[in-house]
C-alpha cells in the first residue's frame, strides 16, 4: 500500500555488480542454484538477501507458454496506469481473457504486513504493519515469506472487484524465464501498477530491498478470476492450484 521509490542509476549499477561478484566462484563461473522450491510458509530467507543465480520454475507450465497466451491484449481497463509517480504518461493497460486479467509492468517491492527481519520500519521508510487482505487467522500477510501481488485501488480506470479478482485469489508472475505463483495480497495507489511482495521479488531473482530493489520492466502479472487459495498464506496450495489453472489457461480454456 505504499508509494514507490526509484533506484538511482549509479546505486543500481553498484548493487548489480556486488550481487554478481558475490555469486561468482574463484574460476569466474556462477554456481548453479540448488534445485529447491521457492519460498513457502516455512521457507524464511536467511542472511543478506540477493538475487538467485539460476532459474527455477514452479509447476509444469513454462514462462514461454504463459507469455504466448498473453501475447495479445484485449484491454479491459478504461485507461492506462503509470508504473511510478515520476512517469510522464500512463502506459500500462489491464488486459483480459474470459478467465484472467493480466498486465506487463515493473516490480516495486512491497514489504507491508507483519514486521520481520527484512520488512520493518527500519528497512522500509514506507512500511505499514498491515495489508489490505489478511491470513486465515486475521493477521496481516508476511511479505518476507509469502509471494503476493498488489492490485491498484479501485478507480474509474479499473476496478479489480468487477473482474472477479479478490484477496487471496491466485496469480502467476513471470520474469526472466521464470514462473512464480502468488496470491492477491495488498492494494496500492489507484493510478499505479506493478508491485509485489519481498518474497515474490526474491523468488524471481530480483533484488528484494524495499528501498532500492525491484526491477524497472519485463514482469508479467496474470491474475485468475474467481479463485481463492485457502488458506491464503499456504504457498504450496497456491502452487498446486496455479499449476492446474495455468495448464487450462495456456490451453485456451480460461
Structure, described:
With 254 residues, the chain is an alpha/beta fold. The chain has one domain (56-250). Helix content is 17%, strand content 19%. The protein has four helices and seven strands. It has helices at residues 9-23, 63-69, 198-203, 235-250, and strands at 95-97, 100-110, 148-152, 170-175, 178-188, 195-197, 215-224. Strands 1, 2, 3, 4, 5, 6 and 7 form a seven-stranded mixed sheet that branches. It is globular and about 45 Å long. The protein starts with 8 loop residues before the first helix and ends with a helix. Its main location: secreted. Residues 1-24 form the signal peptide. Residues 32-53 are annotated as: Disordered. Keywords: Carbohydrate metabolism, Glycosidase, Hydrolase, Polysaccharide degradation, Secreted, Signal. Pfam families: Glyco_hydro_75.
How many DSSP H or I helices? 4
Strand proportion, as a percent range, falls in 15-25%
Largest sheet geometry: 7 strands, mixed
Q: What proportion of the residues is helical, as a percent range? A: 10-25%
Succession of helices and strands: HHEEEEEEHEH
> Segments where pLDDT lies below 50 for 5+ residues?
1-54
Ends distance? 29 Å
Helix/strand class: alpha/beta
Gyration radius, to the nearest Å?
Answer: 17 Å
Tertiary shape: globular
Q: List how many beta strands DSSP finds.
A: 7
Count of discrete structural domains:
1
Subcellular location: Secreted
Keywords: Carbohydrate metabolism, Glycosidase, Hydrolase, Polysaccharide degradation, Secreted, Signal
Signal peptide: 1-24
Main location: secreted
Amino acid at each position: 500500500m505504499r508509494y514507490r521509490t526509484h533506484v538511482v542509476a549509479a546505486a543500481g549499477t553498484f548493487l548489480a555488480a556486488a550481487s554478481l561478484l558475490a555469486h561468482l566462484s574463484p574460476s569466474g563461473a556462477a554456481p548453479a542454484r540448488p534445485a529447491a522450491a521457492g519460498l513457502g510458509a516455512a521457507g524464511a530467507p536467511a542472511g543478506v538477501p540477493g538475487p538467485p543465480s539460476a532459474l527455477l520454475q514452479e509447476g509444469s507450465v513454462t514462462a514461454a507458454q504463459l507469455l504466448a497466451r498473453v501475447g495479445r491484449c484485449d484491454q479491459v481497463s478504461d485507461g492506462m496506469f503509470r508504473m511510478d509517480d515520476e512517469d510522464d504518461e500512463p502506459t500500462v493497460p489491464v488486459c483480459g481473457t474470459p478467465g484472467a486479467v493480466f498486465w506487463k509492468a515493473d516490480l516495486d517491492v512491497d514489504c507491508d504486513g507483519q514486521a520481520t527481519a527484512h520488512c520493518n520500519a527500519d528497512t522500509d521508510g514506507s512500511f505499514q504493519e498491515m495489508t489490505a487482505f489478511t491470513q486465515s487467522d486475521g493477521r496481516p500477510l508476511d511479505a518476507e515469506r509469502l509471494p503476493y501481488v498488489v492490485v491498484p485501488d479501485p478507480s474509474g480506470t479499473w476496478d479489480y472487484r468487477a473482474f472477479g479478482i479478490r484477496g487471496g485469489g491466485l496469480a502467476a508472475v513471470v520474469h526472466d524465464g521464470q514462473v512464480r505463483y502468488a496470491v492477491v495480497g495488498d492494494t496500492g495507489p489507484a493510478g499505479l501498477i506493478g508491485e509485489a511482495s519481498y518474497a515474490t521479488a526474491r523468488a524471481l531473482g530480483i533484488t528484494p530491498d524495499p528501498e532500492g530493489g525491484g526491477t524497472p520492466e519485463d514482469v508479467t502479472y496474470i491474475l485468475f478470476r474467481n479463485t481463492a487459495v485457502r488458506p491464503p498464506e499456504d504457498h504450496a496450495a497456491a502452487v498446486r492450484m496455479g499449476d492446474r489453472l495455468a495448464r487450462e489457461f495456456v490451453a485456451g480454456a480460461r
